[in-house]
């Protein structure tokens, strides 16, 4: 690794590269003077990121909220939209928990599914991020249980953390900092370079690769295309477009996938996509997410295995950890048609344990003609951030802050497609494990 001797790289302390990290790495110097998104576009021609609103615009008021149910029966949860009983938002298990993204002033109803009795109605407040449904008055066992007493302590911790730091604590409250690598993001426009040996797959024939020292090929079962793997290394740049504390830690990565690799993922994605769901434990249908999605295993094709190895280098994470049995989920493939969207949400939630989604690597494998941006409404001190990189390029953002807290500012949305079809794929990586 190399870095300028003139910079103060305090956030380099967050770097935790694996032993034997195989890529060549250059940590970028701070741009001087510091750039904003407009300067990034005018001075560097980097036009894939823009503000959502002008200076002085109204910032996003969405907030993360946790719910703990200490009743001995599961409860149905409804957003109170004025209808009866409201918009279904999933179930809270008996003596269990859930979390959601909501807004100041919104309210949720909790209903006994057997009797249809309204157990509780809770109105959301911007300074409160944990809501407890207390046990029945005669349930002395639960009232005196370690779990209930700990939840009360957690609620106090959350209030004190918000009062001290001005941001909510959204992870499980005793979670330590992450153990995985986190790239420095000191200024907008800072750029790191990773040179990986995992070259592109491209469309061609065997003779195209005979001059190389080794070669591999893959025949697409549906289209009949022949893909050939290049031995040439790739130099990939990670450019900071948002940083803490003004917003989430976000990088744009140009040309992370070849055109042939994008088409390969779409061809296989078409075989697995179905109606998208939200929520935990299989989820439920919601008008907040109107796309189709599916999952591709790393071992499905040689191409996907190469792509994951390249992702590992770009993330600074051990290649062996990017497997569904370890730190990564399977590669999600999502298709959005005209007017389809995914409204603002976090990729993480507090499930009562330290294991949590740590980062999201999102690739545009077929951008739409209009619309379809990925937006971060809380970035840039409320001005927001909107990105739509070209085909094969990606967005890396961290859902966790250096102290282990879930980053509320990583709230993001898949904006509606205005024209054409949008295909993306994304990899979720967990810390300390899945």
Main β-sheet, spatial strand arrangement = 1-10-14-15-24-20-27-18-17-16
Number of helices: 5
- Residue-averaged pLDDT, rounded? 90
Derived from helix and strand composition plus strand pairing, the structural class reads alpha+beta
Q: Using only CA atoms, what is the Rg?
A: 23 Å
Q: How many individual β-strands?
A: 27
Helix content: 10-25%
Strand content: 25-35%
Which runs of at least 5 residues are low in confidence (pLDDT < 50)? Answer: 1-9
Distance between the termini: 29 Å
The rough form would be described as: globular
Give the helix/strand layout.
Layout: E1 24-26, H1 37-44, E2 49-50, E3 62-69, E4 75-79, E5 87-92, E6 97-103, E7 107-111, E8 118-123, E9 130-133, H2 140-143, H3 146-165, E10 191-196, E11 201-203, E12 217-219, E13 226-229, E14 234-242, E15 250-253, H4 259-269, E16 274-275, E17 292-296, H5 302-315, E18 331-336, E19 342-345, E20 356-366, E21 370-371, E22 374-376, E23 385-387, E24 394-398, E25 412-414, E26 417-419, E27 422-431
Parallel strand pairs: 3-9
Antiparallel strand pairs: 1-10, 2-23, 3-6, 4-5, 4-7, 7-8, 10-14, 11-13, 12-13, 14-15, 15-24, 16-17, 17-18, 18-27, 19-25, 20-24, 20-27, 21-26, 22-23, 22-25
């Amino acid at each position: 690794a190399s870095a300028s001797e003139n910079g103060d790289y305090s956030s380099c302390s967050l770097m935790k590269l694996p032993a034997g990290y195989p890529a060549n790495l250059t940590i970028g110097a701070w741009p001087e003077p510091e750039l904003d998104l407009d300067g990034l576009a005018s001075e560097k021609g980097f036009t894939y990121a823009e503000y959502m609103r002008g200076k002085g615009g109204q910032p996003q008021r969405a907030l993360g909220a946790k719910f703990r149910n200490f009743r001995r029966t599961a409860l149905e949860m409804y957003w109170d939209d004025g209808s009866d009983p409201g918009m279904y938002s999933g179930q809270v298990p008996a003596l269990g928990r859930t979390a959601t993204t909501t807004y100041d002033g919104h309210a949720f109803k909790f209903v006994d599914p057997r009797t249809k009795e309204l157990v509780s109605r809770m109105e959301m407040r911007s300074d409160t991020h944990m809501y407890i449904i207390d046990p029945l008055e005669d349930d002395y066992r639960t009232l005196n249980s370690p779990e209930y007493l700990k939840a009360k302590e957690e609620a106090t911790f959350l209030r004190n953390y918000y009062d001290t730091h001005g941001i909510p604590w959204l992870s499980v409250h005793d979670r330590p900092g992450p153990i995985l690598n986190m790239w420095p993001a000191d200024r907008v426009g800072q750029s790191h370079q990773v040179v990986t040996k995992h070259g592109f797959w491209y469309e061609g024939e065997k003779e195209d690769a005979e001059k190389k020292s080794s070669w591999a090929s893959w025949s697409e079962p549906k289209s009949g295309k022949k893909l050939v793997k290049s031995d040439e290394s790739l130099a990939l740049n990670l450019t900071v477009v948002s940083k803490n504390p003004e917003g989430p830690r976000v990088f744009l990565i140009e040309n992370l996938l070849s055109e042939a690799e994008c088409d390969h993922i779409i061809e296989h994605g078409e075989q697995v996509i179905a109606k998208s769901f939200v929520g935990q434990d299989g989820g439920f249908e919601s008008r907040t997410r109107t796309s189709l999605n599916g999952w591709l295993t790393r071992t499905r094709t040689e191409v996907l295995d190469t792509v994951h190895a390249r992702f590992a280098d770009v993330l600074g994470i051990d290649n062996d950890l990017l497997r569904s049995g370890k730190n990564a989920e399977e590669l999600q493939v999502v298709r959005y048609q005209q007017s389809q969207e995914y409204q603002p949400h976090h990729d993480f939630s507090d499930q009562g344990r330290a294991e949590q989604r740590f980062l999201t690597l999102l690739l545009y494998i077929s951008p739409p003609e209009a619309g379809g941006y990925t937006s971060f409404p809380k970035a840039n001190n409320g001005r927001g951030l909107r990105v739509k990189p070209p085909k094969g390029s990606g967005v890396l953002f961290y859902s966790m802050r250096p102290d282990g807290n879930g980053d509320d500012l990583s709230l993001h949305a898949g904006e509606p497609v205005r024209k054409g079809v949008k295909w993306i794929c994304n990899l979720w990586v967990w810390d300390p494990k899945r």
